[in-house]
Design a protein that fits this description.
The chain is mainly α. The protein has a domain at 87-238. 82% of the residues lie in helices and 0% in strands. It starts with a helix and ends with a helix. Mean pLDDT is 81; it is low at 52-60 and 220-229.
């Protein structure tokens, strides 16, 4: 009986040691897994928080840029004798115009300021911008092309006449202007326009009228995405 008890005790001791050894291995694995999970959590936190911070910074900058543009438009229009109510209405109309293909809100405001600074009214500037955006979109042009043409239009109006250097840039960025010139003036030469006494303002008005008769470009997925992005920027600017 005594030998049996001793044998049983030995077996229990061995089983206990084996169990403790296995338990120790399990504990070590749990600790290792815990450290790995902790490290993974830190990495995920960094991976998520840094991009979010970058997005937030970019959104704030974008909102600030839009706000600065709107203030610049306000300063331009008020300086020309328009009321704050006129400014707000013009911003509303420019937002509406920017829904069309080939134009975004920021670009529309910049172009409006540019043309108003050479004494175009806000309404005339907006009409020119709308027609230009459609014409540029029809010709497969870019935002840079539209900006380039409005810059040359502003220079023509400021100089009071059509210069060959300005006209060449417009023709490069908006080839259809050559056809519109021929229809409006019977010539495509800047020198002929100067001899005819055509001013820069008259040239811009005639080309704008010609563009108004062009087919309208319909929007697509890209235009919808641009409009959605601009809406988010405007919302951020208003919150800011």
């Amino acid at each position: 009986m005594s030998n049996t008890i001793k044998s049983l005790n030995v077996k229990l001791a061995l089983l206990s040691k084996g169990f403790e050894a296995k338990l120790g291995r399990v504990e070590r694995k749990i600790r290792t897994s815990g450290r790995r999970l902790s490290a993974l959590g830190s990495e995920l936190s960094t991976a998520v928080s840094l991009p979010l911070a970058a997005i937030g910074t970019a959104a704030l900058k974008s909102a600030g840029d839009l706000e600065a543009l709107q203030l610049a438009l306000r300063s331009t229009m008020v300086g020309a004798g328009r009321s704050v109510a006129d400014v707000n209405e013009e911003l509303k109309q420019l937002r509406k115009a920017a829904l069309a293909p080939g134009l975004d809100f920021e670009q529309a405001v910049k172009a409006s300021i540019r043309l108003q600074n050479v004494e175009q009214s806000a309404e005339d500037a907006r009409r020119t911008i709308i027609e230009l955006a459609n014409a540029v979109a029809m010709s497969g042009g870019t935002a840079q092309d539209l900006d380039g043409v409005t810059i040359q239009f502003a220079q023509m109006i400021s100089k009071g006449k059509v210069m060959s250097a300005d006209l060449r840039i417009i023709q490069e960025r908006l080839p259809v202007v050559t056809k519109l010139m021929r229809e409006a003036f019977g010539t495509t030469s800047a020198e002929d326009l100067q001899r005819m006494g055509v001013t820069g303002q008259q040239f811009v008005e005639a080309i704008t009228n010609g563009m108004a008769g062009m087919e309208r470009v319909s929007g697509g997925l890209q235009n919808s995405m641009v409009n959605a992005f601009v809406s988010m920027r405007l919302a951020a600017a208003e919150l800011g």
